[in-house]
Amino acid sequence: MIAFVLRRLGSAVPTLFIVVTISFFLMRFAPGGPFNLERPLPPATMENLMRTYQLDQPLWRQYITYLSNAVTGDFGPSYIYKDNTVAELIGKGLPYSIELGFYALLLALVGGVTMGTIAALRQNSVLDFSIMSLATVGTTIPNFVVGPVLTLIFAIMLSLLPAGGWGDGSLSFLILPMIALALPQLAVFARLTRGSMIEALHADHIRTARAYGLPARVVVVTHAMRGAMLPVVSYLAPCAAALMTGSAVVETIFTIPGVGRYFVLGALNRDYTLVMGTVVLIAIFVIVFNLVVDILYGLLDPRVRHD
Amino acid sequence: MTDLSSTSLPDENMTTGRSLFQLAFIRFRRNTAAMAGCVMMLLIALFSYIGPLFSPHAYDQVFSSYVTIPPSLEARPDESALRGAIEGVAGRAKVKLDSFEVSGRSFTATISADAPIDPRATRYFDRANEFRDTKVVTAENEGRILKVAGQLNREYFPFGTDPNGRDLLARVMLGGQISIAVGVLASLVSLGIGVVYGATSGYLGGRVDNIMMRLVEILYSLPFVFLVVVLVVFFGRSFILIFLVIGAVEWLDMARIVRGQTLALKRREFVGAAQALGLSDWQIIRRHIIPNTIGPVIVFVTVVVPKVILLESFLSFLGLGVQAPLTSWGALISEGANNIQSAPWLLIFPSIFFVATLFSLNFIGDGLRDALDPRDR
Q1: Which of A73, B239, B261, B370 counts the highest number of beta carbons within 10 A?
Q2: Which residue from A37, A19, A75, A29 is spatially nearest to A273, judged by alpha carbons?
């Protein structure tokens, strides 16, 4: 197991290198630049800016400079957030995004799996139908609709919760953005759980467990759920990476100082260094969570072996 | 396939074997919810693709007098609005309005002035959006009192209009055409690539799996916006490109899920039996691995479709998807979300169609899952 983890961590280095390389050149092939504003800058200013940020040098030299700096943890200055380095921006925003994303993931996972299991146990009943309808609505209504509707109801009409901001980080500030983030994922987990739970409940070993007269709760929770969690766990990795690196829409609606907006703003403003920072960030999350999931496979289903 | 009953002697009546797909089709036909989903889906598709032929308004036709009007089954303009309009016309023509009557699609009005009225004053009527073919019927008192009659332009906007004065009904139909096409095609692309890639990676395992999954991680991390922009620069902006880009992004989750299932499946007895019979890797993947992953795959497809449709609206927002005056449900919904307080119908109508489509797709998906499950005959 330790050898497997070490090998995977070793293969993360070339993966990151390829991600950085492709992203670096991909960005430069896209038209537009960080200082191409609607009103063009005077040529002299432009020249100075390009020199300051070393954008006037040949592309391969910029690439080598970037790579050698990035290895030492220096991701360069941001072009649009002046006076901030990319590392500072991400370092400041990331804790907020991770905290919010973690709670959202927890809500989505626990809520989704519970709802999916109940639906599977009562297959084709009214309860099953209503849970799955709720899940369908959850996947259908986009964040940019859920967010404003939640603020409208709970913050403006009922005045129960703050409309946005992080405040002192207490739960009341987290609830609404957490729900808006979690809802679509919760629906996915519920659907995936229901589908594989129905299959798992028909399996031979469940029939055997029932024949032994084990209590229904033990049969469902320890035996059926263990096998049924496989697709849920598969989806966990991309979902966790997406939630914990923040969402531009939710962070904008609830004015949360996270990193999600940098993904969109950086790309739209051609802030090359900021985009590279977000790319490295998401790559690390994806690699780590995929590794965690691959280990979880082995724990859930002993037939899965990594060799 | 682990079924013991399949080893029993063949029944006399069942000598003609049925293929997996024939059986699936028969079982699917019996599933009422799934068939209802099919009918619903068909109706929505007919509404979107055939509906525009019967719609009196084009999707890009602008009605400048009817900007952001709420949905109503009544004809526009209503009586009081017509009265306001005709008074405006009378004011511009510098005449006095004595009487004004509306019957169905035509109107009659009596106008008077101190000096004889030039019959060409009817042009003032025609210039307004509401009236046309205005003619002088009778002239009295040496042309100082004119009786004019003409046709009314009455329009029906059952879904209301948008802030540009376009008929929302026609736009929802057009949006349906684009969103259904994008949703179905992009999901099929991601389904095809994801299932084959994931099953191959999981089944072959070892070094191949390691490399194939690292490639998935790389693709996950690439900045999506730039990927789209560069593709558009190279291939030009086209409708097909939208499918390709979205399909190219959405297959990654599918591949991870199928690979996870395959890792557990390949240690099962029936796969071992197939290997012992000397089937090739590809035959085993195609006949034994992929059919057994169908459950989570179909569930996930029903999740991908709404994702894809909404992703298309993000591309449109970046200026890379479909451009105005063309539209899609995703674009209509995001426009509606911006006007949620002032004009809620802009959000409600596209959402109803979107949710209805998703509901019927989910029922079809659940029916397909039950029908295609190889363990359950």
Answers
A1: B261
A2: A75
Q: Please state which of the four CATH numbers 3.40.50, 3.30.1360, 2.60.40, 3.40.1350 is assigned to the domain occupying B79-152.
A: 3.30.1360
Q: What is the pTM of this model?
A: 0.82
The reply to whether B353 touches chain A by the CB within 8 Å rule is no
CA distance A189 to A240: 12
Q: Which CATH number fits domain A86-300: 2.140.10.10, 3.20.20.70, 1.10.3720.10, 3.60.150.10?
A: 1.10.3720.10
pLDDT at B16: 63
**List of chain A residues whose C-beta atoms are within 8 Å of the C-beta of residue B221:** 19, 23, 279-280, 282-283, 286
Contact call for residues A249 and A151 (beta carbons, < 8 A): no
CATH no. of B38-54+162-376: 1.10.3720.10
Query: How many CB pairs (< 8 A) connect A and B?
Result: 164
Q: Does A139 touch chain B (CB under 8 A)?
A: yes
Look at residue B137 and give its three-state secondary structure. strand
Partners of B256 on chain A (C-beta within 8 Å) are 234-235, 237-238, 290, 293
Domain ranges of chain B: 38-54+162-376, 79-152
Distance (Å, rounded) from C-alpha B242 to C-alpha B237? 8
Most confident of A94-98, A259-263, B2-6: A94-98
Residue B374: CB atoms within 10 Å: 17
Q: pLDDT for A211-223, tens place per residue?
A: 898 888 888 888 8
The Cα A232–Cα A112 span in angstroms is 10
- Quick check: B4 pLDDT over 50? no
Instruction: Kindly report, residue by residue over A255-301, the tens digit of the pLDDT.
Output: 888 888 888 888 888 888 888 899 999 999 999 999 999 888 888 88
Is any Cβ of chain B less than 8 angstroms from the Cβ of A234? Answer: yes
Q: How near does any CA of chain B get to the CA of A26, in Å? A: 7
